[in-house]
Amino acid sequence: MATRKPSDGSSRSASGTPARAANPHAPAGVRDAVIVGGNRIPFSRAGRKYADASNQEMFTAALEGLVARFGLQGERIGEVVGGAVLKHSRDFNLIRESVLGSSLSPQTPAFDLQQACATGLEAAITVANKIRLGQIESGIAGGTDTVSDAPVAVSEGLRRALLDASHAKTLQARLKAFAKVRPSDLKPLTPATDEPRTGLSMGEHQAITTARWGISRAAQDEVALASHQHLAAAWDAGFFDDLVTPFRGLTRDDNLRADTSTEKLAKLKPVFGRGLAEPAEPTMTAGNSTPLTDGASTVLLASAAWAAERDLPVLARLVDAETAAVDFVHGHDGLLMAPVHAVPRLLARNGLALDDFDFFEIHEAFASTVLTTLAAWEDADYCKAELGLDAPLGSVDRERLNVNGSSLAAGHPFAATGGRILATAAKLVAAKAAETGKPARALISICAAGGLGATAVVESV
Amino acid sequence: MTDSYTKAVNSGFTKTLAKKLGLPRPAILRRFRAGDPLTVGPVLVVADDASMGDADTLAKELLGWGLDVRRQPTDDTRWGAVLLVLTETKRPTDVSSAVLATGSVLRRLATNGRVVTLSRAAADGDAPALAAARNGVDGFLRSLAKELRAGATGNGIVLTDGVAVNGTSVLATLRFFLSARSAYVDGQLLPVGPADADLPADWDRPLAGKVAVVTGAARGIGAAIAKTLARDGATVVCVDVPAAGEGLARTANAVGGTALQLDVTADDAGRRILEHARTRHGSLDVVVHNAGILRDKLLANMKPAQWDSVVAVNLEAQLRINEQLLGSGVEGLRIVSLASTSGIAGNKGQTNYGFSKAGVIGHTRATAPWAAAHGGTANAVAPGFIETEMTASIPFATREVARRLNSLQQGGRPADVAEAIVFLASPASAGVNGQVLRVCGQNLVGR
Ligand SMILES: NC(=O)c1ccc[n+]([C@@H]2O[C@H](COP(=O)([O-])OP(=O)(O)OC[C@H]3O[C@@H](n4cnc5c(N)ncnc54)[C@H](O)[C@@H]3O)[C@@H](O)[C@H]2O)c1
Question: What atom of ligand 1 comes closest to residue B417's alpha carbon?
Fold first, then answer.
């Protein structure tokens, strides 16, 4: 099958003392992790094209497209890391099983990781760090999620009865176990993404934050419109020709509405924040919130030497990353505000300011998440009180924000979003650097359930 | 992939029935498999008196390939092939005994046997009698091929420009015609000239170390071309439109190559192909223009988009890519383009397609000297009826008739087209340039 000889994951020429990282702020003894490229399948709204596709099928498809793009057949990759937020218990080795179903060498190790919506980016950070430390020469990071094929759990009452029955020795004991089941126990529990500690959905949490920051409906719809327009333009320009491989006959993200307009968005009824006292008219609609989505994505990372040995292109470096968490339960910060905390720490460690970035990739969980994030960084009081900064972090140039669209248009298959954003950012900085002859930088920010956030800096090589 | 009719008339009760009813009984063609013998039996080499020296030379070459070579037409064997050497024939009357000797063994030609003629092309300045004898071979071979049965084929090598009978490309072509690789090539005469090239070190891997690009590789004939190129040693870059990426990835992963999602009608398609091949694989040696579309309509009902898109994909894209590749000074480039028998014989409802495919033949001939100036070649392959998703969409009755309208009474396979392309793309075929090789089972229409 594969003509290329399976290669040793830790290539000889790159072993020994790792090459020094180009980043002057990197710790001593750490080398660069570069981004070679990415591949995802088109994202599809729940219940449509991928209605009966499993996470494993989708992630395998994303992997196969990556293997084909970069000629990785039979290659032993250092590690494949990824995960899914909504996961069947049988998928305990989801990523490894996907690798075994792919054209990669079966000797490629893999593991599952999960950090809610930050899963994909966290996977890339983990892979990059292994590369930077010289533990692996190459790695694939990614994620997959399906809401259509999500696990359905049984009620606690039925679960206990089933367990008791399976432990029972006699028929009578077995029947007795089931006798305890109440009709209400027979209702399946669909997976909830509600916050376990507050019982509120993510949308309701964000509605509180949106209201607190006074983000208007018009401003949110504007973000949503830009997302659709930017993503449509990127598709039309062929930007995704080497980032996406079709799956099950779907060739484009099917949540994308190239023809949406301010008027159309303005017509939609609010869905979150209806129980809040303020504002009188809730602002968050299905148009400015991400839809439930199915999809999978992958990113190929490597040491510069590994990429060079295989004549692979290099788009960018994954320079550094920072995660954060907020106390949304007892504290007063919003559920999705963690990246607001992570970014100042990340910038400080790398001697960077917001002005130093050519692109900002801020995950659009909701249009208002992006807007509250931007508002918080401009707010002197918040920056002082919550972030401990002497002055506001600064403003994000809206011209540089999500220039090729983001989750509002593409959709948001939770764990797959990080890979989508990272590959997009890497390609953007590479193109910008090629055009200007100067280094280009992107800041990535992804909020996640549980008050989590992951952020990263990507820089052209 | 053998059609169900062909299967039925070759096995069990239905075979007996078909025989009794005198139904056409297409043979199951022998296809190339690594390790199988080159021919299905001994090879008879016959020649007219003047060509005996060339016949001896060729017989020695065949012995070197491990074949059982005979010089006498005996009736104690099932012949695998007959090689009819008429290279030094001077007058029409010279060929009689050699031709009749060939005829004397045809009843004992094995299933999937081969008849190959070797003659010289009639050239300007030939004496009329010489030109008559040389050109006569053309009509002889095409007629003979129609008489052959049971999967046997007849093809001819026409030597040009004084090439020696054991010239590299002559031998490469002879081997192709004798082998199972040419299963669906029938009734064809291929002009072959001198070549500044060597025979392959390993006949099973003539493309070892070469980098080949195939457009339209996601499915059908293109996918088969990619697989055959890879089987014969090439590293393959698989190109198709982004929307066909899923199939493209499958092909690329099956052949250990790379997938390049690219519309060949893009202005810079040639440059992007070259850049990909060079940066990722170090060179570009072969380009196969296979991407093609059909938009059938009677001309009276033809919409501008139907005409224009067919011309853009099937013809203009090839021209532009060739210009960009040859213009960037790629050396030794082998270009193989997909034409079609529709471009030779014409087809109702296919004025656009016929124009595009005849156009391919035109530009192939015109590109040949340009390619040769850079040490390369430009050739075309014209498939007849090939069993693919494209032809599977033809209504049953039309399809059933179409696939029988050739000497082999069946449709070809994508792999048959691929074998011809790989042959033309191989280094040893350097002496074949500006030609159109038909892979059509000797379709009854056209040449
Ligand atoms: N099947 C036959 O009987 C037959 C006969 C004669 C000639 N041909 C020729 O052989 C070639 C392959 O035919 P097939 O039967 O495999 O057809 P097919 O339709 O199965 O495959 C053609 C491939 O070309 C691709 N393609 C189309 N437009 C493209 C573009 N602009 N850029 C890149 N790729 C593009 C398609 O996506 C598809 O994968 C065509 O040129 C066709 O005209 C076929």
Answer: 10
